[in-house]
Every structure is written in C-alpha cells, then in structure tokens.
Amino acid sequence: MFELVFSDKAKEQLSDIKRNLALLKRFKAITKALHFLRENPKHPSLHTHIFHSALGPNGEKLFEAYAESNTPGAYRILFCYGQDGKSILIVSVIPHP
What domains can you pick out in the chain, each with its CATH number? Predict the structure, then answer.
C-alpha cells in the first residue's frame, strides 16, 4: 500500500470540488479512485498511463489515472511516484479537457 501525499495545488483543487454541492458525485468518484490508487496504482478502473504532456515537479514521469470515465469533463488524477517507492505524490486533480 502506498502513502498518498498531496501537493498544495491538489489539496486546493480537492477542497474546491468538495465544497461545490453540484460536484458531490464527482468528489465521491475521486475519493474512490484515490483509494484504488493507494491500494494498487495499476487497478484496471484507473486506466493508469504516462501523462506525456508534462513532467512531475522534479522532472520525473507524471502519470494520469481516471477518477471517472465516459463522462463529459471526467476528472483525472495526475501523480508521480515518490523516490522512496512507498509514496505517491498527487500533483493535480483536474477535469479532462
């Protein structure tokens, strides 16, 4: 199991989503995806893959996991693995463009 560490940006994004009652269903989906990510980043429902458009905060590979799929504006979780091999840094939680 991985320890999830959140960037300040990700904390702010999650807080904004949680406060918006119209996004309650999406917040629940994001919470469920974070649980799967902590347990198994390769869980099939996450569809985890390398995010080629950017790098992590220290130039490392950035990954994208699905919090939702087949939904307009579905949310994605951008993350990178910690150097300790035991943690995952949640960089951002964003709607799919």
Answer: 3-95 (3.30.2310.20)
